[in-house]
From TrEMBL:
This is Pyrroloquinoline-quinone synthase. Belongs to the PqqC family. The keyword Transport does not apply. The gene is pqqC. Keywords: Oxidoreductase, PQQ biosynthesis. The keyword Phosphoprotein does not apply. Ring cyclization and eight-electron oxidation of 3a-(2-amino-2-carboxyethyl)-4,5-dioxo-4,5,6,7,8,9-hexahydroquinoline-7,9-dicarboxylic-acid to PQQ. Pathway: Cofactor biosynthesis; pyrroloquinoline quinone biosynthesis. Transmembrane segments: none annotated. Residues 18-228 form the Thiaminase-2/PQQC domain. It comes from Silvimonas iriomotensis.
Amino acid sequence: MSNPLLLTQVLSPQGLEQALREIGEARYHNRHPFHHLLHSGALNLGQVQAWALNRYCYQAAIPRKDAALISRITDRNLRREWVHRILDHDGRDGEEGGIDRWLVLTESLGLKSDYVTSQRGALPATVFAVEAYVDFVARHPPVIAVASCLTELFAPDIHRERISGMLENYPFINESVLVYFRRRLGQAPRDAEFALDYVKRHAHTLAEQQGVLDALVFKCNVLWAQLDALYAAYVSPGMIPPGAFDPGQAPC
């Protein structure tokens, strides 16, 4: 993991927060060209399908990532707080979760849910990036694993941009299929503030604080790599890997 911000002394909690926010400002994937194309209406239906299909792999991995984190936590109170993240995505009895809401989006785009959930059409780079994230969380101490979730600090802005841009620019998108993003406008800030407070209270040493910063850089890279793959396969030069979703062919 490369990080231009190499610490030479321990930061105050406020200084650590500032450093984290600077990383997000510079590296969050809202800066990626693919997102600008998506939100401005420059993509066709097949390209939007490819984005939604590949992004499902990430959405489906979030509960596994959170379960891996919980398995490393010895603090009972933290486990009790963190478990709601799994339920937010997997759902509860009688209440759909984020994964269900994402499938509403993919279905509205003309993709069959069994094909989406099988992940057969996902780009290889998407699968590698997502699994690298799950593995990272499973291998690192809780304070560093929690820090990798801090991209949520920057998520509401991109959700708002996505909602307005997609509604305005795509005739095949309507309000009902964007419920996932509407729900995350409330969930992400709540989760991010808890995670940020936890990191500020528990990252005390130079090594811990450097690990926290590196974790956020890593997570930004995970998100960026997924968009790199989408851009290469479906925008320019359009090199779709064997077996990956091809907008010109019906998924089987």
